[in-house]
């Protein structure tokens, strides 16, 4: 019960209609929140057939739910993948993917530029299960190949990375991975499929913290994985079933609603971020600005090659270092001092002491998270108000 041939429409239209346009069971145009843990079978044979896979149908919300399904269908469309699977958080999505691909004795090659939670999973938690991770500098694709061992089972990348906005050349890393028959997993949280579609660039699996731009309104924690149907079927049927990191129907519904405005939100985030980045770049109290859309970003050429836009995240270091950054964070009025990102509201935070406090002081230096680095998630307010807010806050610092 789909309204149109969705193969021939633009991305903006897919955002609105990708989940099918209306609920297949009732015709409801707003997808209903199927707030039910279990689903009645017509008779005993029907139930048994669904369990063996001979008939399609819903059983239990840990294994599938129509509101989750609407979100998953939409995400698969937008990322250009065969199938998707929703999770209760980005970390549930990432950890479940890792545990589905690796067992004790296996090895992962990962970029060292990661969200602090992913870094902690890789260096603190996975080794307890005998899985080791080599974190390397993703700027040079050759570093991935150098770190591969006979025990390597996957390559993991975040691009652009949180919070340094360092990129990896997805095509080049995918070539190396294919040579070694390894799957490449990309965290596409910062770009969303609106600006970057890793599966088209050669990646095998895409993960998201859907908490961020996918939901877009700062009211949901969620994750999603997109990939080949065969992989997603195993992920759902074995690993989600057994590990249980599911999304609630209410949160899946908030994401379906969020996706309808993804295109317009992302365009506005980007326009605002570019203006804020340019303002900061020429401010006398600012040492360095990191934004892939600036021609001064060392990987601007890669950004132009693999992204259709540069997103809403901007980081910068003040000449006055951490003290100046703290004063700035305490002085802003339109920006909110809070972690998370991708909300319609502009947010400001200090990675070294907050989102990336799982990194050791030495690792913070290695990955370029300066003590003075301040991260902005630029929202969809009027850019002039954001710049005015930063102007007044910058006035008060040395
Ligand atoms: N991947 C990226 C790139 C992230 O930024 C985050 C969370 C995650 C995965 C994990 O997703 P979650 O489980 O939180 O849905 N990033 C956060 C941040 O920068 N501030 O607070 C959370």
Give a description of the structure.
- This protein is of the alpha/beta class and 398 residues long.
- It folds into 2 domains: 6-260, Type I PLP-dependent aspartate aminotransferase-like (Major domain) (Aspartate Aminotransferase, domain 2, 3-Layer(aba) Sandwich); 263-395, Aspartate Aminotransferase, domain 1.
- The chain contains 15 helices and 12 strands.
- The chain has helices at 11-17, 44-52, 66-79, 90-101, 116-125, 142-147, 170-179, 192-195, 229-243, 249-259, 262-281, 300-306, 321-331, 361-367, 383-395; strands spanning 83-87, 107-111, 132-136, 152-158, 184-187, 205-209, 223-227, 286-290, 313-318, 336-337, 347-349, 373-377.
- The longest helix is centred in the last third of the chain and has 20 residues, at 262-281.
- The radius of gyration is 21 Å and the shape is globular.
- Ligand LCS binds at residues 89-91, 115, 117-118, 158, 162, 187, 189, 209, 211, 221, 223, 339-341, 355.
- Ligand LCS is lined by residues 89-91, 115, 117-118, 158, 162, 187, 189, 209, 211, 221, 223, 339-341, 355.
Task: Give a quick summary of the entry.
The chain has 398 residues and is α/β, with parallel strands linked by helices.
Features:
single chain; alpha/beta; Aspartate Aminotransferase, domain 2; Aspartate Aminotransferase, domain 1; 5-stranded mixed beta sheet; 15 helices; 14% strand; binds ligand LCS
């Amino acid at each position: 019960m789909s309204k149109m041939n969705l193969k021939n429409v633009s991305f903006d239209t897919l955002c609105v209609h990708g989940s099918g346009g209306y609920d297949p069971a009732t015709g409801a145009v707003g997808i209903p929140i199927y707030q039910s843990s279990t689903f009645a079978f017509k008779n005993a044979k029907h139930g048994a057939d669904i369990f063996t896979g001979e008939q399609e149908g819903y059983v239990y919300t840990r294994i599938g739910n129509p509101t989750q399904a609407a979100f998953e269908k939409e995400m698969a469309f937008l990322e250009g993948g065969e199938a998707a699977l929703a999770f209760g958080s980005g970390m549930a999505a990432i950890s479940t993917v890792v545990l589905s691909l690796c067992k004790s004795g296996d090895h992962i090659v990962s970029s060292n530029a990661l969200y602090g939670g992913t870094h902690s999973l890789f260096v603190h938690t996975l080794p307890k299960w005998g899985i080791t991770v080599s974190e390397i500098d993703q700027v040079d694709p050759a570093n991935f190949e150098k770190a591969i061992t006979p025990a390597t089972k996957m390559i993991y990348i975040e691009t652009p990375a949180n919070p340094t906005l360092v990129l990896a050349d997805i095509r080049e890393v995918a070539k190396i991975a294919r040579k070694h028959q390894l799957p490449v997993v990309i965290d596409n949280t910062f770009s969303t499929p609106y600006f970057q579609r890793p599966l088209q660039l050669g990646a095998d699996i895409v993960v998201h913290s859907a908490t961020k731009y996918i939901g877009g309104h700062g009211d949901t924690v969620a994750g999603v994985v997109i990939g080949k149907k065969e992989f997603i079927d195993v992920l759902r049927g074995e690993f989600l079933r057994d590990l249980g990191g599911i999304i609630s129907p209410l949160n899946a519904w908030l994401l379906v609603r969020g996706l309808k405005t993804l295109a317009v939100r992302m365009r506005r985030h980007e326009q605002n971020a570019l203006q804020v980045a340019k303002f900061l770049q020429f401010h006398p109290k600012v040492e360095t600005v990191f934004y892939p859309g600036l021609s001064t970003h060392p990987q601007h050429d890669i950004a132009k090659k693999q992204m259709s836009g540069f997103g809403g995240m901007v980081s910068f270091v003040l000449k006055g270092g951490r003290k100046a950054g703290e004063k700035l964070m305490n002085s802003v009025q339109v920006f909110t001092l809070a972690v998370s990102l991708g909300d319609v509201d502009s947010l400001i935070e200090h990675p070294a002491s907050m989102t990336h406090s799982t990194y050791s002081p030495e690792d913070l230096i290695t990955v370029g998270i300066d003590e003075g680095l301040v991260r902005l998630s630029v929202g969809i307010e009027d850019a002039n108000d954001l710049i005015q807010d930063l102007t007044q806050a910058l006035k008060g610092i040395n």
